[in-house]
């Protein structure tokens, strides 16, 4: 490893850090730059993978050619073939002219395919042909075209695991992986974390003409202990927030804890462990499991609240029964089942309150009759209340807690005269 050459590259591309893994990645990039070998850069999101393709291109014989970087995950599947390989006039509705595509435009240069793991399988097959023969066909065309493009790809997906799941072609993986480069996550870079913090703080100071923030030893240790799921991108964002929002320019333990997430295990982004055979997909399953457990706890709390509410409603029904209603009706509960079935959980909706059903009676004849059927006021209870009020229907209805119209319909159903006193 040529140390002087490495330092020159770091200064030229504004790369801060001196950990062995970072130096190794830069050294490999410089060694393979003069060749035309395909390169596959692996690493978590936010580690700075995008700087290596530019280093490779600008230190290669292709440096006078065009360099284009595209994000494969940001292009819709319906148009990605047209974007990469071009199209003929009239190939689809909006194809009012022909297009060379990136492979035609970048011939003689370097094409950086970021997030290559997001490519559709059909596009992967066409990309494989370009890598093997340098030939491709435009969308809607028949003529075989030639291109001389060097491919540098990057991904934060565990491609071997994606191959097992049928999401990525194995032959394409081996074509792209002629020279693998692994970018280290920020949490494994040790003192580089403090160096990057100082650089970002200095940039903010110069840009906005403000005093630079500095870390106390305790605050520095907190930075080093944090797992940085967002890597360098997250560190940059936090440094900028501290520079703008902190009143003190000396950042101690109390201040920095206001900006560092307290529980990165549950609130952080999914971390991709390149050494884990399950890779990205295993971490996704772990995250989903945590969400399910949190949902179960929430549902249990809701069930306890509903149980208390049902107890209160039954007590209210008991009071209504004392006024002449039959015993409380056990109405069927409504259960919403879903992903939590395996945990034997459900959300139960309590039956509607007496007051709510009575309000419906006033506005809707059919619902009033259904309310009557549910409560089944007995003939004896009606007669006792009417006798108590000397046959006054209005007062009897008030004591029973129902409307006059409901009382009249009940009396008619029992064959009792509606004549009022």
Description:
This protein starts with a helix and ends in a 7-residue tail after the last helix. The chain is 50% helix and 10% strand. The protein has helices at residues 3-12, 20-32, 51-58, 80-85, 101-105, 121-133, 159-164, 170-176, 192-208, 217-225, 231-245, 253-256, 264-267, 279-322, 354-363, 365-375, 379-388, 393-400, 404-414, and strands at 39-42, 67-71, 110-114, 135-137, 144-146, 150-155, 179-182, 214-215, 250-251, 334-336, 347-349. It is an alpha/beta fold. Helix 18 packs across helix 19 (404-414). The strands form four sheets. A five-stranded parallel beta sheet has the order 2-3-6-1-7, with helices on one face.
Low-confidence stretches: 266-279, 325-375
- Return the structural class: alpha/beta
Shape: elongated
Computed CA radius of gyration, to the nearest angstrom: 36 Å
Largest sheet: 5 strands, parallel
Number of strands: 11
Give the amount of beta strand, in percent. Answer: 5-15%
Helix and strand pattern: HHEHEHHEHEEEHHEHEHHEHHHEEHHHHH
Strand order of the largest sheet: 2-3-6-1-7
Summarize model confidence as the mean pLDDT: 80
> Termini distance?
110 Å
Summed up, the helix count is 19
Helix content: 40-55%
